[in-house]
Structures are given as structure tokens and as C-alpha cells.
Amino acid sequence: MTSKTSRRAFLTATAAGGAATLAAPVYAQGKRTLKMATGWPKKFPGLGVASQRIGDAITAASDGRLTVQVFGAGELVPPFEAFDAVASGAADLYHAAEYYWQGKSTAFNFFAGVPFGMTTAEHNAWIYHRGGQELWEEVSASFGVIAFMAGNSSAQAGGWFNKEINSVDDLKGLKMRIPGFGGKVIDEVGGTAVTLPGGEIFSALQSGAIDAGEMAGPWIDLGFGFYKAAKYFYNPGFQEPTSAESLGVNLDLWNDMSAADQQIIKLAAAQENVMNPADFIANHSRSLDILLKEHGVELRSFPDEVMIELGKATKKVLDEAAAADPMTGKVAASYMAFLDEAAGWTEQSEQAYLRARSLARAAG
Asked: Which residues take part in binding substrate (predicted)?
């Protein structure tokens, strides 16, 4: 083994978790720069940082042959145009959330997060082990894209509101920034869902263009300064019990890659799917403490009645989406079947344990 090959093997193993054993790339004669469009500001905590980590991992694991140039939202294309940029070849990669592309297929929502749906662990299990990835590739291929899980901000906060929510009637007429199926649910109960990039939520709240908005949770929301524009911080986030990020790749580029380079891309995404949720958990609690103690934010919980009505609306939204489009119906059937299967064990394991932990902590 030559010193050059040894160096490539070492970098691949450390940066991408094991691709070192694969053959050398077929187009190793020259270096290539891959342009990554993203759905959030460059190097923004949690999200933008994750995009950069993915790019750095790919660059290191390829020994610098593949240099990833990361563009923040709006630098290369607007955030909601990242998918089209990759599909057309104007960009090579995107790092964003799949529900941004629901206008192309409502099936994309299932690969990001579904109201009252799977937790992060359950969603990972479906994608990696129960057919979710294969369905995702089937949906994306018709647009010239292939995508992989590449981060997760996990359970979302309920959002920022400029009035208290005491009943489902308080949601009627409410203009709320909320994407994906969550937005459809708000529409169903009489509100108006507004789709905005994260970077535009603050100004919309401040100007009164929207009455409420949600993005992720305390860490990201603190960074965006939402506490300056809305009084009440509500939980739980019914709309996204998990919030997966994805790494999309132009399909022609992907098919031209060697198996080694494909593995580098996949493992860089998988690595971030571990690093990113850990990053959020490490920062959410202390950010919540800052919001409550330093900025006087009022923390609220949605009443049970509101959760029940939102749950009913969710069932209607999902049923209608599945009935309207065969591909969405196929994905929904797989998703819901695994949710029904996984929920039984989650209730007996994590849910039961968390209840027990709360009892023990309360007892001192």
C-alpha cells in the first residue's frame, strides 16, 4: 500500500466512518468542487453548522479531491429553490428539510416529520431498516435527485404566539408560519398556514404579518431572537415530533460517482445524523433557561383539548393526502404501518421510563 493510499484510507476512516476499505475513486485525476445549497443561514447554530460539518467530512474523507463549497440560504439560491437547483445541476448538493418540497410531492413530508408521528428514533428505524430509504429514493428519482438523512433537530417546540391559546377556537383566523403537514393541520382547524424561510420569521412576527411562528426549539429560536417579537412560547410541538434534515445529491452526479465516493457521501450524512441531534440536545435546555430567566419569556402548554382536536385534524389531512396521490399513499401506508408497530414498544420503554424518571426526580 502506498503512502498516498494509506493517507486516503486514514482520512476516510476517521471522517466518514469506514469508507477507507473501498476502492479509489474512478475520477481521481482531478479535483472537483461540489456546490451545496442550504435551507438556512451559513454557519447558523445547529443547522448551518451541520451543513458545514457535512461538507468538511466529505472533503476530508476524499483527501481533498471533493471540495464542498457550502452556501447559506439565499447565497446561491433561495432556500425553497435548493431542490430545483440540485435537480437541474445548478448545485450539486442541498442540505435542507424535505417538507420544503411538498409542492412537488406531498410524499416528501414523510421524510422530514409528520404531526403526531414518529419520534426521531422511530423515524431513523423506518428510514434505515424498514423501507423508508427505498421509498424516498423512488419519490426523488423522478425529479433527478437522491437524498439521505443528514441531521435532526428532533422534537420541535410548539411555537411563538402573540396571544394565549386556551381552546381550538383561538387558532381560528390565526396566521402562523408552519410548514409541511403541520401547516395543513392549522388550515384544517381554521387558521392560515404561512410558509417562510427561517430567516424571515422574526420580521414577519415583528411586523404583524403573522400572529405566530415555529422554527425548531429554544436554541435556534433564541438565535433568531423570536422572544423579541412574541410573548408566549408554547409546547409541545405537535407538528414535528422529529424534524429530519436531508442531504440531497444530483442523481446524474451520483450515478457517475464511484462506489467509494458514494459511500463517502452516505457516511458523511449518517455521521451528521448522529452529531446534529446531539448538538441540539446539548444546547436546548440551557437556551430555554436563558429565554425564561434573562428574557422573561412566558412558557405555556397547549391544553389537552387543543391537542385532541389537532390530532383529529391530522388524521383527516393525512388521509386526504394519501387518497389524492398514489405515491403519497404508498409512502403513507408504509409510514403508518411502522408507526403502529413501533409505538407499542416506545410506550413500554421510553415513554414509560420518562414518566418514571419524572416521578423519581419530583420525589427528590
From this structure: 156, 177, 214, 240
